[in-house]
């Protein structure tokens, strides 16, 4: 009996959050580190189906950097990164498009459908959402660096996304954009997720990663910051406490907050139901970044 009452109280705790977030958009970004853990992906997709079922409007944006690198290795191409972006020649673009669209998006949509959700992949082979332009980077000496077919998202097809979400369908968006002439561009998935969040003016942007959140000491999970402001994040980058792959993630997060997104969460994908706990409970398991 006690157990049944405890379960009922968990539902009641969730009720206020469910009412608060009904009809609101949330963008969830999945990256290579998460996609490598099938059990974590399954649990996360269950959370997303739950969110859609209680009236939230989840949008999935995903990368798959590890899978692209391994497909390149199979083709005998050595991956090369410049400032966290993959140098993308025509063959690399072909491989990245195939891996992201035909392998990863298709699989995510299939799993969501097996969980009785309606889901659809939105990309250059179906209906495209991400509109990009070639990314122009400069090195420390101020010289232009050519990354090949690498882009940044400058706009999205918002009407399409709103229409898809309003029918209760979960959109799954791989990080390949089309430029205005219809050419494909390879986009860093963290920045693609932030661009979608910005344009949709979402309630929340959630980054799933392989770490409990932002840590002040990488060797000590208990150093996780559960709540941090954008100003403090900028200081942590300047102090090099935030480094490596976390830098583009938090920079994308800061861009989204600047553009009006209310909260960004970084949560550990390997912790079962971390997304639901972060959104629908008082616990909060990762890091939330606020303006
Ligand atoms: N202060 C920090 N807190 C948490 N992670 C950090 C920090 N500084 C650097 N990192 C690194 O950033 C990594 C997450 O970025 P990345 O590997 O690119 O994630 P993903 O593949 O999920 O997009 C962590 O595994 C960690 O090694
Ligand atoms: C331009 C660029 O670097 N694109 C990324 C796109 C995938 C991605 O970002 O995947 P993660 O989320 O797993 O890092 C790449 O080719 O790896």
UniProtKB/TrEMBL annotation:
InterPro entries: AceGlu_kinase-like_sf, AcgluKinase_fam, ArgB, Asp/Glu/Uridylate_kinase, Glu/AcGlu_kinase
Organism in which the protein naturally occurs: Fuerstiella marisgermanici
Keywords attached to this entry: Amino-acid biosynthesis, Arginine biosynthesis, ATP-binding, Cytoplasm, Kinase, Nucleotide-binding, Transferase
Pathway given in the UniProt record: Amino-acid biosynthesis; L-arginine biosynthesis; N(2)-acetyl-L-ornithine from L-glutamate: step 2/4
Gene: argB
Class of enzymatic activity (EC top level): transferase
Compartment(s): Cytoplasm
Signal peptide feature range: none
Protein name per UniProt: Acetylglutamate kinase
GO biological process terms on file: L-arginine biosynthetic process via ornithine
Purpose: Catalyzes the ATP-dependent phosphorylation of N-acetyl-L-glutamate.
Transmembrane segments: none
Cellular component annotations (GO), alphabetically ordered: cytoplasm
């Amino acid at each position: 009996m006690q157990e049944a009452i405890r379960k009922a109280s968990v539902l009641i705790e969730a009720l206020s959050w469910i009412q608060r977030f009904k009809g609101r958009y949330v963008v969830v970004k999945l990256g290579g580190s998460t996609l490598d853990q099938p059990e974590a992906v399954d649990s996360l997709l269950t959370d997303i189906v739950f969110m859609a079922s209680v009236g939230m409007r989840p949008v999935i944006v995903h990368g798959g950097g590890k899978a692209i690198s391994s497909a390149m290795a199979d083709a005998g191409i050595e991956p090369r990164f410049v400032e966290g972006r993959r140098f993308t020649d025509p063959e690399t673009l072909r491989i990245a498009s195939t891996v992201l669209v035909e392998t990863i998006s298709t699989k995510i949509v299939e799993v969501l459908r097996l969980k009785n959700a309606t889901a659809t992949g939105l990309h250059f082979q179906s209906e495209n959402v991400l509109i990009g332009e070639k990314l122009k980077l400069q090195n420390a000496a101020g010289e232009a660096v050519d990354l090949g077919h690498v882009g940044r998202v400058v706009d999205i097809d918002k009407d399409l996304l709103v229409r898809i979400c309003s029918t209760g369908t979960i959109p799954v968006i791989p990080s390949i954009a089309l430029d205005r002439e219809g050419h494909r561009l390879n986009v860093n998935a963290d920045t693609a997720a932030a661009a979608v969040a910005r344009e949709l003016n979402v309630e929340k942007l959630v980054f799933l990663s392989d770490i409990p959140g932002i840590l002040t000491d990488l060797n000590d999970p208990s150093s996780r910051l559960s709540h941090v402001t954008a100003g403090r994040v900028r200081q942590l980058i300047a102090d090099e406490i935030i480094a490596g792959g976390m830098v583009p993630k938090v920079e994308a997060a800061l861009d989204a907050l600047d553009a009006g997104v209310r909260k960004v969460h970084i949560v550990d994908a390997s912790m079962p139901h971390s997304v639901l706990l972060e959104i629908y409970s008082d616990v909060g398991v990762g890091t939330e970044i606020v303006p």
